[in-house]
Amino acid sequence: MFKRWLLGTTMAAAMLISPLAAGAQGKDIVVTYKDDITTLDPAIGYDWVNWSMIKSLYSRLMDYEPGTANLVPSLAESFEVAPDGLTYTFKLRKGVKFSNGRDVVAADVKYSIERAVDPKTQGPGAGFFGAINGFAELTSGAATGLTGIEAPDDGTVVFKLSRPDATFLHVMAINFASIVPKEAVDAAAGDFGKKPVGSGTFILKDWTIGQKLVFEKNPNYYVADMPKIDSFTVEVGQEPLVALLRLQNGEVDIAGDGIPPAKFLEIKNSADGAQMIVDGEQFAYRLCDAERQGQALRRPEGPPGGQPCDQQGTHRPHPQRPGHASRPGASAADAGLRQGQCRLRIQRR
Length: 349
What we know:
Dipeptide-binding Protein, domain 1, 4-stranded antiparallel β-sheet, alpha+beta, 9 helices, elongated
């Protein structure tokens, strides 16, 4: 029996790109959001609605084991870090293809990171790559590329940093580090966010602005047995209360905006509430010895919407969302700040 889920945080759609549930194998699911999708360009998109859709369309050198903070190579087959922490060498997987059919090569990695940093892109994620040699020159307009990224051959990418950065591998796992093909960006003529080409778990098949987006399983995805579902549709313009009613009626699978505040206690205190609402955890920050390095912490993974930790590693909580609980005052000693997540699980009759 296929279970229906209501997740109270932005991780709702992220479930689509990891093993959803054994019972969801081969299924098509429907997700709802109130707000429309602004862009699917990984160098630009940075809101809590499009974050997991972007993550599903593209691949990055690094990724996380589902549900953990454990970094693993993704597009990279392996990597080496120099003893001084200033040089990172990645070996790419062979045979990985973009959805336009072309192989992913090292030059694509160099292009994609430079594009994310280039002020002409007007993306919000440039600062994550500040440790790469040539960053200041590119962001000031004095250069057109990053001297700290080299592609000696199609299967090797070398990053040279101006300073050690304990978060660098995590940075290689965020959406801003997604790899895109230059020819597709150029062909889109400034509209790549509506015509995405990547090498992720899903491919955008249809987008009716203001109504819905349809994503289909990437048949050439390089991770075996992934994804676990065949497709998903994102319907936009859905008020959270309407989405909840549709969920209860079995018309949708995920109400992405969570439980409306006015309905939360009603659902929680209902006869089936204890079985329907499940507390989970979402990794929101990757803490990298902030006290020792004295640097502000960033959010290298997870959807945006929060504030960084201060230099002592203390969390500055972001505004609460329905069904969402954060832990203000948590310190870097926690070795991983987690935020609460509520799920409403309804079985199809």
